[in-house]
Amino acid sequence: MAMTPEAGTAVNETAEDVTNSVPVASQDRMEPPRFLPSPGFAAWLAETGGSLLMSTYQSARLIFLYETDGGLHVLDRVVGTAMGLAVDTDKIWLGNKEQIWKFANTGPATLDSLPVDALYMPRKGYFIGPCDTHDMIADVDFKGERHELVFANTNFSCIAALDDQFNFRPLWKPDFISSLMAEDRCHLNGIGARDGRVVYATLCGRSDTTFGWRGTKNGGGFAVDVETGEILAQGLSMPHSPRWYRDRLWLLNSGDGQFGYVDGERGGFVAVAECPGFARGLSFVGDYAIVGLSQLRTNSFASGIALNAKLQAGNIQQRCGLQIVDLRTGHNAHWLTISGPVTELYDVVFNAGVRRPYCPGFRDPELHRQRVQLPDNSFPHPYRGVQRLFTKPPAGPEKSQG
C-alpha cells in the first residue's frame, strides 16, 4: 500500500507532449505523486545511515526520502524547475533553469514534537539568466582555483562558476564551440569531479549550431576529460551524470538505457545494467549505485533514441523512479516507482549521515519566522541547542524556545 506524501508521510512497502516543466501554480493544484518502493527498500536506506534527495524539473519538485519507524517517508516540496543538486553536511545547492539556490543546514531541531537531525533553510539565491543549469558540484577546484559552486551551463555550452557581479563566470568550453551563446549547441549536461577537481563532462553532440546536437542523439554523445581534452568514450546516446567512484568513471548512457563505466585501459563504455527508463541522475553508497529513471516524453524528444525501440520490443513498461544496482553483480537490488504528476527525474544524491531531514522550501512562513541560527560567538542569545519549532502556530501560549 502507498500513501500520497505530505510533510513526513509514511509509505508502506510493496512490491503526450510534455514540456520541460509545469508551472509551480499548476503543480500546487495537482494530485500529489505516489511512491511505491520495493520490499526492503526502506530497510536498505536505513542501513546506509543517510537519506536521498531527488529533483524533477518537469514537475518542479525537490523530494527527500528517508526511513523512519520501519517505513519510507517522503518530504515533497514544490520549488520551481529543480535540476542539479549538490549536497554536503552543511548545505544543499539546487539549480533550475534560471536560478541557483543555497539551503543551509541549520542543525537539529524538534519540529511539531518530532526530532529532525538537519533542518535546511533557504539562505541565498543567484539569478543567473537563461543558463538551463544541469549538474552542479560544490566546493571544488578548477585549474587550481577554488569555487563555491561549479555547474553545467547547458544553454551556453560551457562549464561555469557563480559570480556576484555577472550572470556567471565561464570556466571551460569545448574546443569546437566558437562562441558562448544561449543556443544549447552541444547539450553539455554532466560534470564530474575527481580528487576535489572538476575533471569530467558529458555532451550529447559535437555541434556548433543552435540545438545541433539533436540530430545526433543516437550515438553522437561522448565523455571528455576537461583537464586534458581527451575523449574518454564516444558513440554514446545522450550520456548523463559522469561520476568518479572506486577508481572508475561511471556514467549513464541514457539514450540506450544503460548504466556502466568507462574502460580506463581500452577506452569505450562498458554497460553494467539495463535501465527501464531514461536514466539521469547517479549517486553511490557502499556497493550500490542509485540511478534516477524518467519516462520518455511523448514528443519529438524520444524520436531517434534507441531506448524507445528497445523498450517497445521488449514490452517493457517505462518507469519513473529509482533503480538500485548492486555493483558486485550488476543486478537490481531495490527500486522505487513514482506515479502521478511526476514522470521525470533529473538528479539524485545521497546525503550521508542525515537520516531525518526537513526543509520548508519556500513555504511554511511560521517556520521561517521561528528558526534563527546565529554564529557561536561571544554575543548572548537564546538560540543555542535544539530548538522547538512548529510548522503552524501553537494553539496555546507556548512558543518556540531555545
From TrEMBL:
Residues 40-358 form the Conserved hypothetical protein CHP03032 domain. Residues 1-31, 375-402 are annotated as: Disordered. This is Uncharacterized protein (TIGR03032 family). It comes from Nitrospirillum amazonense.
